[in-house]
């Protein structure tokens, strides 16, 4: 058994480490192409993000909040916070 050089030991240690880095494209020229979302998250996870987009679209918009309240896709406590989020956005903007 031979003794590893510093470089060999470092390479062996790095090879053994599983890095938690999403797939990426080093040749990308835009941030959208650098990390391809479909290679990072599953379609099921994407559908959850779509839900978040619909909630974000309702922030501070009473009509949209009322539509969500009628449809009941979310608990009431979630919908109540949509008005509070708008209030917080206004407060931050005034700073």
Our estimate of the beta-strand percent is: under 5%
Order of helices and strands: HHHHHH
How much helix, percentage-wise, in residues?
55-70%
**What is the radius of gyration computed over CA atoms, rounded to a whole number of angstroms?**
23 Å
Structural class of the secondary structure composition?
mainly alpha
Query: Main beta sheet: strand number and arrangement?
Result: none
Distance between the termini: 66 Å
Taken from the alpha-carbon principal axes, the silhouette is elongated
Mean pLDDT over the residues: 84
- Give the uncertain stretches in residue-range form: none
Number of domains: 1
Total helical elements: 6
Number of strands: 0
List the keywords.
mainly alpha, 6 helices, 95 residues
If you had to describe this structure to a student in words, what would you say it looks like?
With 95 residues, this protein is an all-alpha fold. It contains 6 helices and no strands. It has helices spanning 6-16, 31-34, 37-40, 43-58, 62-71, 76-94. The longest helix is centred in the C-terminal third of the chain and has 19 residues, at 76-94. The radius of gyration is 23 Å and the shape is elongated.
Short description:
The protein has 95 residues and is mainly alpha-helical. It is 67% helix and 0% strand. It is elongated, with a radius of gyration of 23 Å.
Write the layout of secondary structure elements.
Blueprint: H1 6-16, H2 31-34, H3 37-40, H4 43-58, H5 62-71, H6 76-94
